Amino acid sequence: MALKMTDYRTKVFVDWCPGCGDYGILAALQMTLAELQLPHYKVAVFSGIGCHAKMPHFINAYGIHTLHGRTLPFAIGAKLANPELEVIAVGGDGDGLGIGVGHFVNTGRRNIDITYLIHDNGVYGLTKGQASPTLKLGLQTKSLPKPNINDGINPIALALTSGYTFIARGYAYDVRHLKEMIKKGMQHRGLALIVVLQPCPTYNDINTKEWYSGEDRMDPATGKAVSRLYKLEETGYDPVVRGPEEEMSKIVSAFERAREWGDRIPIGVFYQNETLPTYEDRISKRIPHYGQKPPAKQKICKDDGAPTANLAALLEELIVT
Amino acid sequence: MASQDFVWMIGGPQGSGVDSAANIFARACCYGGLHVYGEREYHSNIKGLHSYFHMRISKREVRSRVDFVNLLCTFDAESVVRHVWDVAPKGGIICDEAILNTKIMNIPTLPPPFLAEFQKTAEKKEVEARTVSDLLKDAERTNVRIYAVPYMELLKDIAKQIDEERLSKLTRMINVLSLGISFGLLDFDKAMVKKAVSMVFAKKPRIIVMNMLALDKAYEYVEQEFGGDFGYKLETVQTDEKRILVSGFEAVALGKLLGGCRVQTYYPITPAADESVYLEANEIFDLVQGTSGEEKEGSIVVMQTEDEIAAINMASGAALAGARTATSTSGPGFSLMVEGLGWAGMNEVPVVINYYQRGAPSTGLPTRHGQDDLKFAIHASHGEFPRIVLASGDTEECFYDAIRAFNYAEKYQMPVIHLIDKAIANSTRSCKIFDTSRAKIDRGQLRFQWEKTDRYKRFEFTESGISPRIPLGTPNAVFWNTGNEHDEFGHTSEEPLNRTRMMEKRMRKLELVDREIPIEERVSFFGAPEASVTIVSWGSPKGAILDAMKRLSQEGWKVNFLQIRMVHPFPKEHVSEVLNRAGKRIDVEMNYSGQLASIIREQTGVVMDNYVLKYSGLPMSSDEVYNAIKLILQEKAPKRQVLPHGS
Ligand SMILES: Cc1ncc(C[n+]2csc(CCOP(=O)(O)OP(=O)(O)O)c2C)c(N)n1
Ligand code: SF4
Ligand SMILES: [Mg+2]
User: Fold this and answer.
1) For ion ligand 3, residues whose CB falls within 5 Å
2) Among B414, B261, B419, which Cα is nearest to B325's?
3) From the CA of B267, how far away is ligand 3's center (Å)?
């Protein structure tokens, strides 16, 4: 029987604030799992700490709610041990780009085949709205006593320089488009990042749903709001690297698009490069049986508990009599 | 001094081949049927600062260092200055003729505190020592033989022999040359030395050829210049025992492979990193044939992470997926791991941490020894959760404990910290080959299948506190984990009743550990049941204590020794019983405050009578332990003795 989106729900009460962008992200992820018909047990969703990090509890799949900023190391550990797992890591902007940014950058060096979603709401939601690392200089969201004295990180640009091989941005209230982004990310061979613009109606009173949809910018001709968001794919933008010679030019154009903000904010796929070996490929090159017998699938003992490892050859190197 | 033992020390600047010379020396001795215990000392530096290897050789098994040296073999002036006074009467010093006129005060790598101390000692000894030569002349007066060798001249001869013009290439051979001089003086079987050279440089045939020439040259030179001069001879003996020459970190690594470790994460730190590097070099290994069908090879994935925070959490991730997983670190790294440790405790993750202590706090003494972290290992993290802390006392224990750590972790579903220290990690020792047939793997309540009929509860309340465990990816089930307090499924719950039950479920496991694990796995006891003094210790002082006890008992003293190998949960009933029937109770450990003694007091109410402590960064020698215990036996000792030996 085909799996439906509702099959990926749990009975746990969803306790985000009304109107929180996280609802859209949750729905998009559940839709993706249904569309890909992934059995529950094959999926492992990891999260950090923050409002975003409650996600795994709402998804009917293996769910590991970890520590603030540490979702990537946990997710990587599981994927390394069992590459058959479909691993999705969920992080906050404070979580992944503040306290955990070292992991963000270093994960880029590994091109491990997991999908990483960052909920970018410009604030530390769960600790009541302090500035997050993506909040721009000088902005003063609701609970800030003073305007932001730090400038914001650009996660797309940071991912580009860190080596991510799939980089996209979605919008929490465009669930269908976001689902496409997540699906593409999961289908990508290698490390995929999807930054999700996530309005936090409770604490971010600047980058609101109304702001993204441009309700302050009415088109006099149509009388409709002119959204600040536009879709890269609708402009003929081509993010795909097809060979090493294309790499630099695609990175440069992705970087240019990543710099856009304010009146025109791109969503869609910025960059994709499947020509590079994944971390799993690199391990397999050193350990040829890794694909069939990754760490979690190795038989380490016989039924009577006797270890399967044979140390004779290693001990031989140490024998001196 | 144990008279049947011989001590050879080799010293020189880091990067000049002290380690490989020591390795060859140890191997050659072992090939000759002798036992060795070699202790490596080095600075936190790559090239230029002083390092040495202290090698004790004996016909019987040796497990500690002593305070004297019989033959000091040096490449540079500093090594002579630092160790000249360690050389026992009738001993010898090998040095480079070229350094004789070096002015001691002009040796740039000797630090001011050392020079100040040196001056004081020189005054006390009434030695007027401006140059190295002055020092050596004084040593000769105490019956020490001096062998000044023109290393450069000998190298030039060799260069001619092999048509190698670049002498600088050959200076790398000074270590083997001086090694040859040492063995020549000791009249040791040259074939054994050559065999050792061939083994150590097995992958570099040209180096073997050059070093063989250097050896011949050295033996020849000794024959001509010092023939029969040195009082000691090193004779080979016959043995049928199968022995290995092994370092502590190799023992841990081998134990882990046998114990089923298949993922290792680490961030480089001394003295832990050697183990991970060894594992990575041997990431593919053989499997016992006929056991796993057609499979011939197993493997371990070794991951160098961006920091220790990633290392512990990645290890937990891999453990959740069902692989036996460990991470190795030292104090600074463990400090960073603490939050992750708490998460593993909260989520009952069987992760193993091999914790190599070194002098602390902070970066402390990065390459030196210490046992400063006992209490930290037991208490690290906010909150209360069960963990097991083991402490190995020597190389062999490292091997067996490394296996055991995984069994405990999986059986009781909790993090296990395996304490090791620099003195064990960096010492090489000959011992009986490890008995791999003794190893058993017990994965506890781990299952690879789940029946659909029952909704899986990762944290099911059970009488023992242990819930059935399945890896991520197991069909017919899902589960959740969170660092928050959670219900049986693993979903966040702040309900007071659930919280109380969950705390009790987790903590109950510790009682189970305490009940189930046999006392023989938690303590070792040495010596007669009744004695005038009982020593209590943990970790690496074991060897020095046993060697000291041997001498004391030969003199008729009655001493026994309780070694604590599982420091948490603390085997309190047993320790209490032993200590309550003991005479004087002596705490021996390598930290300032007597951490074990304080735990004993907390857990049993027993207050130790005497303390023998050391925190200089150098391991305890059996001589100083012997002296300290003897003073206590003679009732001449202060309550607290701080051991000073070593440079
Ligand atoms: C080590 C540590 N420091 C601080 C906290 C407190 N804390 C909880 S959530 C949070 C911020 C979350 O912000 P973000 O990652 O942006 O997630 P959001 O709530 O916005 O989804 C912080 C700082 C923590 N849990 N752990
Ligand atoms: S605080 Fe913001 S991010 Fe958190 S649940 Fe409420 S709306 Fe969502
Ligand atoms: Mg946030």
Assistant:
1) A 92-94, 121, 132
2) B261
3) 29
Residue A286 in contact with partner chain B when CB distance is under 8 A: yes
**What is the rounded CA–CA span in Å between residue B219 and residue B605?**
61
- The closest CB to that of A77, out of B33, B299, B314, belongs to B314
- Average of per-residue pLDDT across B257-278: 98
Mean pLDDT of B273-285: 98
Question: Is the predicted pLDDT of residue B2 greater than 50, yes or no?
Answer: no
Q: Which stretches of B462-540 are DSSP H helices?
A: 496-516
Q: Which residue has the CA at smallest separation from atom 23 of ligand 1?
A: A127
The mean pLDDT of A176-196, rounded to a whole number, is 98
Question: Does any CB of chain B come closer than 8 Å to the CB of residue A1?
Answer: no
Q: What are the C-alpha distances in Å from A155 to residues A17, A93, A140, A169? A: 25, 9, 20, 10
A316 touches chain B (CB under 8 A): no
> What number of other Cβ atoms are within 10 A of residue A156's Cβ?
22
Atom 25 of ligand 1 has which residue's CA nearest to it? A68
Instruction: Specify the amino acid at residue B11.
Output: G
A17 C-alpha to center of ligand 2: Å?
5
Q: How far is the CA of B414 from the centre of ligand 1 (A)?
A: 26
Q: Where are the alpha helices (DSSP H) in B449-594?
A: 496-516, 541-554, 572-580
Task: Say if CB B344 and CB B351 are below 8 A apart.
Answer: yes
Amino acid making up residue B190: K
Dihedral, CA of residue B309, residue B314, residue B316 and residue B319, to nearest 10? -160
Cis peptide before B619 (omega within 30 of 0): no
Q: How far is B7 from B72, CA to CA, in rounded Å?
A: 8
By the 8 A CB rule, do A16 and A22 touch? yes
- What domains can be seen in chain B, in order of their start residue? 5-225 (3.40.920.10), 253-438 (3.40.50.970), 522-642 (3.40.50.920)
Section A77-85 average pLDDT: 98
- From the CA of A12, how many Å to the nearest CA of chain B? 8
Closest-CA residue of B relative to A53 is B482
* Spatial CA neighbour of A67 closest among B303, B492, B489, B313: B313
The response to whether residue A52 sits with its C-beta less than 6 Å from ligand 1 reads yes
In degrees, to the nearest 5, what angle opens at C-alpha B509 toward C-alphas B503 and B511?
105
**Residue B2 burial (CB < 10 Å; 0-12/13-18/19+)?**
middle
Q: Which domains does chain A have, with CATH numbers?
A: 5-282 (3.40.50.970)
Share of chain A above pLDDT 70, in %: 100
At B163, is the pLDDT very low, low, confident or very high (cuts 50, 70, 90)? confident
What chain A residue is nearest to B341 in terms of C-alpha separation?
A: A67
**Rounded CA separation A147/B393 (Å):** 58
Distance CA B34, CA B59 (A): 5
Region B249-260: what's the mean pLDDT?
A: 98
Whose atoms come closest to the Cα of A203: which ligand? Answer: 2
Residues in chain B closer than 8 A to A290 (CB atoms) = 299, 301
